[in-house]
Amino acid sequence: MDFEQVIKNRRSTRQFTDQKIALETIKKVLQEAQLAPSWVNSQPYHIHLAVGDSLEKVRAQQEKFDNSGAKGNPDLPMMSRKDWPTQAAGKHG
Questions:
Q1: Under 8 Å CB-to-CB from 40, ≥6 apart: which residues?
Q2: Which residues fall within 8 angstroms of residue 17, CB to CB, at 6 or more apart?
Q3: Which of 10, 48, 78, 84 is the most buried (most CB within 10 A)?
């Protein structure tokens, strides 16, 4: 697929359904997502796939957290651009 086709075929989903997605499809998407570049090659990904009862427990826990008003904590500290490696900051040479 060339770049023009990629742009023309792009979609943004703003409404979700309860339609089931095959587990193999989800696994394939996650495997391909691991090929995506990360900020300053930090590769901070930790993927956990939950289905069935495990998924329902995660949903309930997240709903409780959301309703508590608690603030989240990022896994990686925020970093000023001044502290980025030269290559990541776009300052070559």
A1: 84, 85, 88
A2: none
A3: 84
